[in-house]
Amino acid sequence: MDYFGLLCTFLLVALATIFISWGKRKRKSQGKHKLPPGTMGWPYIGETLQFYSEDPNAFFISRQKRYGEIFKTHILGCPCVMLAGPEAARFVLVSRAELFKPTYPKSKERMIGPWGLFFHDGGYHLRVRKLIQAHMTPETLRGLVADIERAVISTLEAAVGKDQLVIFHAMKKLSFDVGILAIFGGHLEERYRVELRKNYSILDKGYNSFPTLIPGTLYHKAMHARKRLRGILNEIMNARRQEGRPHNDLLGALMDSKIDEPLTDDQIADNIIGVLFAAQDTTASVMTWIFKFLHDNPKHLESLKAEQMAIFEANECGKQPLTWAQTRRMTTTHKFILESLRMASVISFAFREAVADVEYKGYLIPKGWKVMPLFRNIHQNAEFFQEPRSFDPWRFEVAPKPNTFLPFGNGVHSCPGNELAKLEMFSLIHHLVTRYRWEIVGSKEGEVEYSPFPVPKNGLPAKMWRVSNGSGKAGE
Ligand code: HEM
């Protein structure tokens, strides 16, 4: 045999060996269970191109139609199993949560800070979560109503008459201010607030950028802003230690932690940046949708106005502040908020990784694969929400079936800030519909952008007016 023949034989034998051992490994890992239906797309790139060229929600919905409630795909270099049913979401997030760990790209972890609770499971996660939850009880939130109201009024007043008002930007400022209130209470020195806002906004701009430390790139700038944020937080913590008095806010709770050993300053700082991150874009996106849904649904706007005007008048046309008890009685507004959360589904899915081979309904979820319960698909399923595409707050007269309404997730990692977010929305809607009117300019029906959460195109440009006697029509 000549040299070429030998080479060919060698290559054939090598390929056959690789193929057989791959087949054996695959069979061993699959055991008696098969992988879920679906396609893994092209080698290496999988279905990443389709994921990015389509609207991500259209991507998930088309595959759910083709394959059913559990299907596999391969995006961003990871094999994934998507779960579009309520039972499956419960399996991953609640009943067998120990088999699925939260997973984020390392670049994001570095930016928020590796001690952020969302990156952890087990004892440390539980310890930090308890401290945050203990600060989100009705008793604590009650103490924030007046400060949140001031932040809402200041945001809306700043929006009045602006030529180029972008609702999403205004709402980001509001949700940042409310995050600062929850973390530092109402008495943070102005210079700290300014520096925190400035540096957090640089970090925010770099969060979804390509992770490279080349100077001048958004990611590089964001990592530097993170360092400065860490420095500011250090200063605030040191000042508080010197002052020596207890503070009834989230930073105070994290600093005075008596559960097991105290948290280190790195752990506290990472969680403060983490909470700011978790609180800002999520709440701002939903509030932007609230403007849109109010504008597009005059009938619902009228029923909200009726509820809010009664409170406005009871408060001597806004001379008295809104109270916690009043926010608890806003039943029509509450249904409107729930329907806005369902329709907007700003967190469309959760992101987990299987820590072992897992069997679910006869399918194998291999160890190391990403697992994504698809909240939006569940919220848009006609089996659980009749005519899911129509905006109908009255559907919440009846409680949704278990595990079908998951805007704040479920289980050990579910959102501890949900009541704070809703309180902010109650206060916003109260002032918006009683004191202002607005008009949406230059955003077409159905146009959505991802930043990274879905918001109306261009952040919903609008014009806003004040209605001096509180009786004008909002959203006309
Ligand atoms: C409308 C606004 C909000 C929405 C839709 C939302 C949604 C969510 C969801 C779905 C999760 C679970 C993610 C998962 O399972 O992987 C989550 C977690 C979290 N949220 Fe929110 N959130 C909102 C506002 C807030 C606010 C205002 C705070 C401030 C305290 C906050 C703090 C957190 C934290 C710290 C976590 C991580 C919890 C853990 O890992 O144990 N969120 N949020």
TrEMBL record:
Involved in the oxidative degradation of abscisic acid. This is (+)-abscisic acid 8'-hydroxylase. Its EC number is 1.14.14.137. Heme binds at residue 415. CDD domains: CYP90-like. Pathway: Plant hormone degradation; abscisic acid degradation. It holds the Pfam family p450. Belongs to the cytochrome P450 family. It is found in: Membrane. It catalyses: 2-cis-(+)-abscisate + reduced [NADPH--hemoprotein reductase] + O2 = (+)-8'-hydroxyabscisate + oxidized [NADPH--hemoprotein reductase] + H2O + H(+). Keywords: Heme, Iron, Membrane, Metal-binding, Monooxygenase, Oxidoreductase, Transmembrane, Transmembrane helix.
